[in-house]
Automatic annotation (TrEMBL):
Its cofactor is Mg(2+). Transmembrane segments: none annotated. It comes from the Bacteria. This is Inositol monophosphatase. It comes from Enterococcus malodoratus ATCC 43197. Keywords: Magnesium, Metal-binding. GO terms for molecular function: inositol monophosphate 1-phosphatase activity; metal ion binding. Pfam families: Inositol_P (PF00459). InterPro entries: Inositol_monophosphatase-like. GO terms for biological process: inositol metabolic process; signal transduction. Mg(2+) binds at residues 63, 81, 83-84, 204. Coiled coil: none annotated. Gene3D superfamilies: 3.40.190.80, Fructose-1,6-Bisphosphatase, subunit A, domain 1.
């Protein structure tokens, strides 16, 4: 299965790159900074067609095209974010990803995050027992504490100081705001960030979560509960050591 998925991702990436060359059709979803383009929708349709040619029974949970409320606990579910970082895609033409995750009976089996313009594919999970960066196997990052590393954050969370985001940031070595959840996961998996604190939907966190857990790191959702896979929620993903500190700070103020 992983070979097929990697093939679809590379094909989808070609569509994304050629879409950048054409006139993009950009629409607003919930306000002027929440954008969707024709490429987001076309890439999701393209991946869904590939999935259904491969496995007609598979279910889809995807950000676009009205496929955003499928439960993940039964059967084989493909979770798709056709372009993660749409605002970067439109404004920067880089720093965006294609993300796919596979769940079977509610268990995450494979995650894929492809940084299209850097040609960097992080993929893996329980189904293959490893995580790769292109062809190279990744080892588990060092279990650094919050004060020893950089932390990724959602800008609004930091600005509004929700869940004591500012204290979390000040305890760390510094915050990073990348505008693309997938790239925060890539940084954590490579060990260049110790965590990520954000407000995310299932397609934002599915692939990254599967790979983080494979490498011994932890994730948690709203109210210190497991991720719900329903709607947008508070998200923490971090090394084990940093997770304990971040939870203590966010809990203390809640
Ligand atoms: C968004 C990006 C952004 C994160 C948002 C996501 P989208 O995804 O990952 O960095 O802060 O929470 O919704 O909408 O560009 O796929
Ligand atoms: Ca979006
Ligand atoms: Ca996203
Ligand atoms: Ca998206």
């Amino acid at each position: 299965m992983e070979k097929e998925i990697i093939g679809w991702i590379y094909e989808a990436a070609e569509k994304v790159k050629s879409g950048l060359g054409d006139a993009l059709k950009v629409d607003q979803k919930n306000g002027r900074t929440d954008l969707v383009t024709n490429v987001d929708k076309e890439v999701q349709d393209f991946i869904v067609k590939k999935i259904h040619d491969y496995d007609p029974k598979a279910l889809i949970l995807g950000e676009e095209n009205g496929q955003d409320d499928t439960p993940i606990d039964k059967g084989r579910v493909f979770v798709i974010d056709p372009i993660d970082g749409t605002l970067n895609f439109v404004m920067q033409q880089e720093n965006f990803c294609i993300m796919i995750a596979v769940y079977e009976e509610g268990v995450g089996q494979l995650g894929f995050i492809y940084d299209v313009m850097r040609d960097e594919l992080l993929w893996g999970g329980p189904k293959v027992g490893k995580v790769y960066n292109n062809k190279e196997e990744l080892s588990a990052p060092e279990n650094k504490s919050l004060s020893e590393g950089l932390i990724g954050m959602n800008a609004a969370l930091y600005r509004k100081d929700l869940f004591h985001a500012q204290e979390i940031g000040q305890t760390s070595m510094g915050i990073r705001v990348l505008g693309c959840a997938g790239l925060d996961f890539v940084a954590i998996l490579k060990g260049t960030q110790i965590g990520y604190v954000s407000m995310l939907s299932p397609w934002d966190y599915a692939a990254g979560t599967i790979m983080m857990e494979q490498l011994g790191m932890t994730v948690i959702g709203e109210n210190q509960q497991p991720l719900s896979f329903k709607g947008r929620e508070f998200f923490i993903g971090a090394t084990q050591a940093a997770m304990a500190e971040i939870q203590a700070i966010s809990k203390a103020n809640h």
